[in-house]
Amino acid sequence: MSATAASNGSKDEKEVGLPGYTNAAPVQQEGAIRSENWATRNGLNLESFKKRDYGAGIVELDRSMKPRHLHMIAIGGSIGAGFFVGSGSALSTGGPASLLLDFFIIGVMMFNVVYALGELAVMYPVSGGFYTYATRFIDPSWGFAMGYNYVFQWVVVVPLELTVCSISVSYWNADISPAVWITIFYVFIIFINVFGTLGYAEEEFWASLLKLSATVIFMIIALVCVLGGGPESGRYSDYYGARLWYDPGAFRNGFKGFCAVFVTAAFAFSGTELVGLAAAEAHNPAKSLPSAIKQVFWRITLFYILGLTFVGLLIPSDDPHLLNSGSTDVAASPFVLVGQYAGLTGFNHFMNFIILVSVVSIGVSGVYGGSRTLTALAQQGYAPKIFTYVDRSGRPLFSVGLVLIFGALAYISLSEDGGTVFDWLQALSGLAALFTWGSICLSHIRFRKAWAYHGHSLDEIPFKAIFGVWGSYIGLLLVILVLIAQFFVAIAPPKGGINDAEGFFKTYLALPVVMLFWCIGYFWKRTGWLRTHQIDVDTGRREIDWDEIHEYRAKFEKYPTWRRIFHTLF
């Protein structure tokens, strides 16, 4: 595509409300010009707060992430309270079979979502990827809604996670005011963000490593307990097996219970898509992102599915500790309860510490995800221009500041009505991720259709989703089915009866919020669904070294079958 054509394409895009992508040369696409001073690059002096020289193109953020960072963000980045604590309420609501099936279904959905995201992110490495893909391939108004939906999702998560931090510490000492612990962890999250992209990446690397190691330790101990190898002082000293699947049973609350567990599973998987957002700040995403995406398969199968299988085998679904459990009640975490019931002194404290690390990690991720998406919105004219400010250490300073300010909402939990406020905040974030995931799948479907329309072949795509466009259809279908199931639960809750208006919106508030943003975007930009011929698939596309790719593909074809399978999975 000629430079003139690229320029015209960008102009046409702006006329219909699309992002103004630039078709920069490979050297320019390296991003913003980094300071030679170490302290300035890492945000440790006053000079680092000054506005940086952006260089060429729209990618203005730092590119300091290494492959090891992306790998850990992919495999363990979003393991947090939803998995460690929320699984307790899910077990109580739906039973062990519903817990396993719902997490498996969401896992299949996420597997296809991240592969679709990986294909798009390697082709179009743009900061704030999900929002810009929806804007470019679906509808600028819908992209506007998805951008703000994602920002609000993380803006709400930060104070929620700070509150859970205080509750986690109160497991050891309930006498100290939660305000003290909220303040300590609030300051810690601010401190991590001083170091910008590298601070987030390093924190996620070590936190993910700790979370994954703890989950492996838990599964080994759980296996021993299931086989009856627990201490004599605990309940797992005799062969335990699958007795809890028979009494009290595999399912609770019937079909309603099965449907109700989906929202917990979706909350537990929230943040998986951050690996695509982080790719825009990796040094070479075309090389490091595909291998990071493959790690998601192992996270889903080994950690979520296998870990929750053991939870369902060891903790009865009618356990009284689970009756009032939620994503904030650390004492009701099945991972903590296994240690208590097994008679393993100290293991419950160890797991509570891991939960604390996980919650802080999600809080840091919330600031990262919300600020980068807000910056992307501002770059496209969908948010005030001040949020495009990126300082010399690569921090989108005002975007990070705004998300951190919302963290102060955590102090509301100290008031008498704090619980009510947080119920509504949680309602905002509950289903928000599902809309993001559905948009990623639909963006991929629309991209593939436009790619073929403009005369391109699949061989021109450097990294392809493992199940192609059909994987995205499956992912999108599952998103729709889960939203329908949750709508059913919002009307008829598992405990029986029909919900009132307050109960319905606490379960399904995300939908009217997204629709409100879509309407605002439509009346602002006056653009609707893009026709296939309007979608520009060439402007802003990454320059690819095809000689290297063809050489690698030829080498790959010569591998023995076992090695090709190994490479596909890892």
Structure description:
The chain has helices spanning 3-15, 38-41, 67-76, 81-84, 86-123, 129-137, 140-170, 178-194, 196-226, 254-269, 274-279, 285-314, 334-342, 347-379, 397-406, 418-430, 432-453, 468-491, 501-508, 510-525, 546-557, 561-569. By secondary structure, the protein is an all-alpha fold. Helix 5 crosses helix 10 and helix 7 (140-170) packs across helix 8. It is globular and about 65 Å long.
Number of strands: 0
Distance between the termini: 34 Å
Largest sheet: none
Quaternary structure: single chain
> What's the SSE pattern?
HHHHHHHHHHHHHHHHHHHHHH
Rg:
24 Å
Helix content estimate:
55-70%
Q: Average pLDDT value? A: 80
Morphology call? globular
Beta content: under 5%
What structural class should be given to the helix and strand makeup? mainly alpha
Quick rundown:
It contains 22 helices and no strands.
What topology does this entry show?
Elements: H1 3-15, H2 38-41, H3 67-76, H4 81-84, H5 86-123, H6 129-137, H7 140-170, H8 178-194, H9 196-226, H10 254-269, H11 274-279, H12 285-314, H13 334-342, H14 347-379, H15 397-406, H16 418-430, H17 432-453, H18 468-491, H19 501-508, H20 510-525, H21 546-557, H22 561-569
Helix pairs in contact: 3-9, 3-12, 5-10, 5-12, 5-17, 5-18, 6-7, 6-17, 7-8, 7-14, 7-16, 7-17, 7-20, 8-14, 9-12, 9-14, 10-18, 13-14, 14-15, 16-19, 17-18, 18-19
